[in-house]
Amino acid sequence: EAQVTQNPRYLITVTGKKLTVTCSQNMNHEYMSWYRQDPGLGLRQIYYSMNVEVTDKGDVPEGYKVSRKEKRNFPLILESPSPNQTSLYFCASSLFSGGAGANVLTFGAGSRLTVL
Amino acid sequence: KQEVTQIPAALSVPEGENLVLNCSFTDSAIYNLQWFRQDPGKGLTSLLLIQSSQREQTSGRLNASLDKSSGRSTLYIAASQPGDSATYLCAVETQGGSEKLVFGKGMKLTVNP
User: Fold this and answer.
1) Which positions in chain A touch B44 (Cβ < 8 Å)?
2) C-alpha span between B110 and B41 (Å, rounded)
3) Which of A6, A33, A37 to mutate to test the interface with B (most CBs of B within 10 A)?
4) A44-53 pLDDT, tens digit each
5) Disulfide engineering: A23 pairs with which of A36, A58, A91, A112, CB 3.0-4.6 Å?
């Protein structure tokens, strides 16, 4: 089944303890992206990747890191989590991006992170 | 900076009504516009994607239109059903090399039996 898989789905952690949220897609998509969703603020893009070894900042990249060493994986790293990073996180992918072609996004089920 | 607005934030209607959901954006230089559905506690599901060169797309009871010059899109839902209850979001991908996808805050739809 074509899908985007995120892990963990739920996580409670403490301030300063490094964590990684994994994202994997099995559709050979070039484009991958991370979003956070907060009440009243909607979905905001954190980082995106056009292809392997190509990443760029979205609108709210502070406090986050990403890497794209393989096409299928795009982990989100919080080096030193803080309470303001408590949120619902979504990973998404698409075959291409922008003018290269249809950009239908497939989303993961979400990862709810709580930082105490 | 691209801004996407969806008004109203919530809508409650009786079953069977034909609905129009609105989305407006400030920068008309877009690659495409997408409509998504989000059920509570779930991820987003893409409903329709309209390329910048297209005027509309249809899927079943859903029809999305795009007027790029005026910065507007509408999602038309025919003969609404309780199963259509969800939050609907629109998102635009803006040209200019940023490759960023900007979302509206969504509209929560409740269709009452």
Assistant:
1) 43, 90, 92, 105, 107
2) 16
3) A37
4) 999 999 899 9
5) A91
